[in-house]
Specification:
Layout: H1 4-10, H2 21-29, E1 34-37, H3 44-54, E2 58-62, H4 66-78, E3 83-86, H5 92-103, E4 109-112, H6 114-117, H7 120-127, E5 131-136, H8 158-162, E6 168-172, H9 177-186, E7 193-196, E8 204-210, H10 214-223, E9 230-234, H11 238-250, E10 255-258, H12 264-276, E11 281-284, E12 297-302, H13 309-316, E13 326-332, H14 334-346, H15 351-369, H16 374-381, H17 394-397, E14 402-404, H18 406-418, H19 425-432, H20 438-442, H21 459-471, E15 475-478, E16 483-486, H22 491-494, E17 501-503, H23 528-545, H24 549-552, H25 555-564, H26 569-573, H27 580-595
Parallel strand pairs: 1-6, 1-7, 2-4, 2-5, 3-4, 5-6, 8-13, 9-11, 9-12, 10-11, 12-13
Antiparallel strand pairs: 14-17, 15-16
Helix pairs in contact: 2-3, 14-15, 15-21, 18-19, 19-21, 23-25, 23-27
Amino acid sequence: MNSPQHILEHVFGYTHFRDPQEKVINTLMAGNDALVLMPTGGGKSLCYQIPALARSGCGVVISPLIALMQDQVEALQEAGLRAAFLNSSVPYDEAHSIEEQLLHGELDLLYLAPERLLQPRTLSLLQRIELSLFAIDEAHCVSQWGHDFRADYLQLNCLHEQFPRVPRIALTATADKRTRAEIAQRLGLEAARHFVSSFDRPNIQYRIEPKDNQRRQLLQFLNNGQKDNAGVIYCLSRAKVESTAEWLSQQGYPALPYHAGLPAEIRAEHQRRFLREEGMIVVATIAFGMGIDKPDVRFVIHLDLPKSIEAYYQETGRAGRDGEPSTALLLYGLEDVVKLGQMVEASEGSEEHKRQERGRLNAMLGLCEITSCRRQSLLRYFAEELAEPCGNCDTCLEPPATWDGSEAAVKLLSCVYRTGQRFGASHVIDVLRGSENEKVRKFAHDQLSTHGIGKDLSGTEWRAVVRQLIVRGYLEVEGEFQGLRLTEICRPLLRGEETLLLRKLPPKAERTQTRNSSTLEDLGPADQPLWEALRNCRKQLAEERGVPPYVVFHDATLRSMIKAHPQTRNELLAVSGVGDSKLERFGDAFLAVLRDFPKQ
């Protein structure tokens, strides 16, 4: 039996474990259970793949998504491992063949959908073989409070009952303290050792801006250093997904729509193209992305406000899994708050559930409106403190200006009160700015003392004031029509006993300016021809095997090749990400390319 360190070096091509991978692996090697919380891209998969190979028997991985299984099995097979998956996409004859391999001890890892695992036939089959471990991936799917809830996950505690001697590991990248406790309780992992890594993803630059001609903002962002980069763009509605993808294609960007309303074969094809073609953009609802193992996604954009910080963190975490510089851009508006608020109120959940969802939405809006470091606020939500501002979010890179908004806030609060505390922000702003439209006249609000007292600010500026007063708790949004209502804490402000500093909107020219997040950031212009040659070599090898390019080698491995410029097989084996099997399969092709270029 090979040691974990030997497997790390010779199968996966790495010399050192990341913290806390080795501790997790040692826990499983000793036959004990583990609950692992590690950010996307932090190396969760190795935590169960390596002990599954080092222990006797076959490792069984429960995964919620067909695409994730296929992706991981392809990568393992290219690394020379005996891996397979069983789910609804596998034809009967092929499934029978995989079961025979399993019975004859010819598999190192088997991936199963939860519904497949729970079939009596599958459980009976597993009772007949030697098992090295069970890995429950995307374990947050067990949480009934979460947006990725899967009912089948609730029955996975049967593994503890039916296979008490087989160690289990549950893994997730998205769980606050309450969700972690729920995972442990529902999966019978209370006695398991918990490993909680830092939530920080320092390679991701967080940028959040108010919507202001959203398509212009989007195009400006893409044109500024994102050409030929892969990315994901999230929208709240299917209609917006399709119109945005079509518009981007007209602008010269390869963009594909993805949402649950598309036929399954089109969704599968668009996902396949995203994984296998370089520089592809997917415009999607949240139906897309969980478990997508594509390492070189350079940006994630939200064109609508996510409903919680958990959702935002998980979705932005799909950028930069390879550790390279990446950007998360969020464009949000007051209409997002209204729409999400209506969705919460219209849901069939209990009052307690609705209260929890309102709290999560308010926390998300608060992250948007803060003037301090975004990363510190984001990590604090997950009970983690960052000692210093990160230096890699928009508020750190371009500290927002503030202004004394006390007088403006009093005008707005007075107008809300005098219009009856039942109208939405748009109407209140119309009254403040002196509009005489039909609705203003219908309610005789053109006769109010607050009519026209806010002409000094634009509609966009007033919407920013409304958002910040909601975040600070001076206003709340209520009822079917999302009317604004004053809260108790606004009394000192109305009496002039309090000064209120508000975030000033940046000039348009300063928005959506992001650094160039090209993967060549630390390589010189002279390296560009070799970079392209290595990418072309990788693409050709990937197409021959019918796998995504990153399954051959990650971008980071190609960049290490450029820096080290190996000329022999032994030198290439020393490059991070090159293991024995990949050296055997791909080494000569890449060495031929490297030898054609003189070392810089």
